[in-house]
Write a structure and sequence with these properties.
Elements: H1 8-22, E1 41-44, H2 48-65, E2 80-84, H3 97-111, E3 122-125, E4 130-133
Antiparallel strand pairs: 1-2, 3-4
Length: about 140
Amino acid sequence: MTATPGGRRFHELFDETVPLIIEQRHHRERPPVEGGRWPVSVVIFPDRDLGDRLDTITRELIKLAGPGHFHTGILGSAHLTVRALERFRSEIPEADAAVARYARATRAVASRTAGFPVTITGLTITPSAVLAGVPPAGSGSTN
């Protein structure tokens, strides 16, 4: 089951995580390591208005969460991951063939794709992150 905005799992994640945070047993993201999280990915950055609102919320959450967290929701960092393409690599050469191929494919798809609105229907917490609820386009979710 996935965490869908307004769906049961979205709310269950919150209920499961609150005790972990209260007891300071939740996960704090570490700097990336070879082969780990934070891979090369295709992402969408929010427009300035949404980015500013997410930044405001993130700065409030930083106060509540305590020290030791990455601040990935701040302005310039908040994003919607479309697709992870490979595992994290600490060293990527300037002319990396795989990244060049990813960039060409992303540009080709983006050139044929119209802009689209992104609606955030809520936030929830997990043991390792704050997630924004973004329903699929046309789903009619309004939570």
